[in-house]
Design a protein that fits this description.
Layout lengths: L2 H7 L13 H12 L10 E6 L2 H10 L4 H5 L2 E7 L12 H19 L3 E5 L4 H8 L6 E9 L13 H4 L7
The structure holds flavin mononucleotide.
Length: about 170
């Protein structure tokens, strides 16, 4: 599968088969993350992989009761060990770097026949408590992973000519 095919095929999977995700597939997802670029090659990302059913239920509650979160066979807490470095452009590194790594995971997941969903609707303090994540570590996103039991809808996106400008802001 080429990259563009994977980009087109990826969608937010919100229903999962009751099927375990093979360890070698999971490792390839994290290898894809490991190879992601990051500011100054800081590699601040850390991933907590959760398969335990009780813990997944707790995370579902921390994610505003989104039921499919608990139903997914794997939940990944995508974290940053960070000194909160801000780039010259004014943007903090860590949410950008962790997000790039997550996107690598979501695209490699398509190649593996897996589905994912980014989860930003969660209470960080509760997730940290459930997973024993130190206070100084940030939880940037949760990511559900598993075999899809639903199908993607047509993509609802702005047209290219709205988002791309040539030479000047117009
Ligand atoms: C940063 C981020 C946070 C998101 N948080 C949630 C979430 O908490 N729950 C959810 O169901 N979807 C969540 N999504 C998925 C988006 O709703 C979805 O990507 C968007 O509607 C486009 O649909 P698609 O991913 O199927 O192309 C999130 C996506 C991103 C990138």
């Amino acid at each position: 599968m080429n990259v563009f095919d994977a980009i087109q095929a990826r969608y937010s999977v919100r229903s999962y088969k009751m099927q375990d995700v093979e360890e070698e597939k999971l490792l390839r997802l994290f290898e894809a993350a490991r190879l992601a670029p990051s500011a100054n090659n800081r590699q601040e990302w850390r991933f907590v992989v959760v398969k335990d059913a009780v813990t997944r239920q707790q995370l579902m509650h921390a994610a505003r009761e989104q039921e499919f979160v608990g139903q997914a066979p794997v939940i990944v807490a995508c974290c940053a060990v960070t000194d909160n470095h801000v780039m010259t452009c004014g943007q903090p590194c860590y949410p950008i770097d962790v997000s790039i790594a997550i996107d690598h995971i979501t695209l490699q997941a398509v190649e593996e026949g897996l589905g994912t969903c980014w989860i930003g609707a969660f209470y960080e303090d509760r997730v940290k408590k459930i997973l024993g994540i130190p206070h100084v570590v940030r939880v940037v996103e949760l990511l559900t992973v598993g075999y899809p039991a639903d199908e993607g809808l047509p993509k609802n996106r702005l047209p290219l000519n709205t988002i791309v400008m040539r030479e000047r802001w117009k």
